[in-house]
Amino acid sequence: MTVEKALRKVERTARETVEWPEPPKWPEKCRVNTHSAYRPSEHQVDALEDLEAALAADPCFEHMKPRAIKEAVEQFANAAFLNRSASRVAGFIAANAEEPSDQICFFPVEGLTVHRRVQLGGATLYPRGEIAPSDFILQLDPTMDSVIAADCSGTSGRAMMGRAREIAEHGLRLLRVDLRQDMGIIDQQLRFRLGTAYWFTDIGGGWGSRPGETMSLDLNEDELKLVTVATISALPPTGGTVVQQAANRALEWFERAQLATDQLVALLFQFFALEAILDDSSPGLKAERLALRRAVLSHLRGSGFTHPGQTYWLYEKVLGVRRRARARQTESGPSGFRQRPGPR
């Protein structure tokens, strides 16, 4: 949905008549105007959220911070509710939109040297000597063996960098696949990656930490006590009972989840750990069995009987499972775990 369409939807729904419960009877001298502020109903809230999403996704408005977007949307809705004679869509766009800037975003590449330009999908790989970044960029990321660049457009440098980075990473991903056909190149040579700095054609640049970057940790005495008193600290590295073997398999998957830099991958590893600790090696879909066992395990540990629906839907989401039964479900939670409807 475009910003203009979302604005018109908010304006239209804000001017609808909504039947609210009768306000309490106050003495005339204490009476307040209950209609002085916009109180949206459920479908009107949906329109407001659609507008917020459209503003965040539009390059002309991406310079607005989340709080500024929310405040602007609320002000627009209130104005549409209080004054229903004129449209304020054009005024909103004129006041908040900015003209996108067309730029080229450059990233240093570590561990990869080239001697001429190479087109990689939508990105261009340059030899280091052909692109001359500023001394400031070189101080931020001195380990630069080549440079990759991608076109971008927008009104937020950070958002533009993010879109250009996706194109650059896609280009390097294609290059790794192509180079793997050469049997003389080993996997360690394909671990080239983007650096931490970036810069644009003429609007400066910046830097950020790399996903998975290590941060130092100084363990104090209280934290060391947590390690020594934990039951899992007595788990042997190999052998042991069937339960201990399952716990070790789950521990390995849980460690991978902790070290993963992608949240979806981390969630997937956590479910692998859950399958290992519950010793569920049966084929086929396991969402309902895992959800029920997870809820019972939580209850036995004294954490309460959590509703299995959350685990069920997370499992199906992370594995990309789409079952036909979902189309027939109108209530949250899987069949067999449906919540009772609340009082009407």
What general form does the structure show?
A: flat
- Strand fraction equals 5-15%
Number of helices: 12
Instruction: Quickly count the domains.
Output: 3
Percent helix, as a range, is 40-55%
Which class best fits the helix and strand makeup?
alpha+beta
How many strand segments? 7
Distance between the termini: 34 Å
Compute the average pLDDT: 76
CA-atom Rg in angstroms:
28 Å
Low-pLDDT regions: 23-36, 321-344
Biggest sheet architecture:
7 strands, antiparallel
Return the string of H and E elements.
HHHHEEEHEHEEEHHHHHH
Give an overview in words.
- By secondary structure, this protein is an alpha+beta fold.
- The chain folds into 3 domains: 3-96, no CATH class; 101-207, no CATH class; 221-328, no CATH class.
- Helices cover 45% and strands 10% of the residues.
- The protein has 12 helices and 7 strands.
- The chain has helices at residues 3-14, 42-57, 66-82, 89-96, 135-140, 157-179, 221-229, 242-259, 263-277, 287-300, 308-318, 324-328, and strands spanning 101-110, 118-120, 123-127, 146-154, 193-194, 197-200, 205-207.
- Strands 1, 2, 3, 4, 5, 6 and 7 form a 7-stranded antiparallel β-sheet that branches.
- The longest helix is centred in the middle third of the chain and has 23 residues, at 157-179.
- It is flat, with a radius of gyration of 28 Å.
- The two termini are 34 Å apart.
- The model is unreliable at 23-36 and 321-344 (pLDDT under 50).
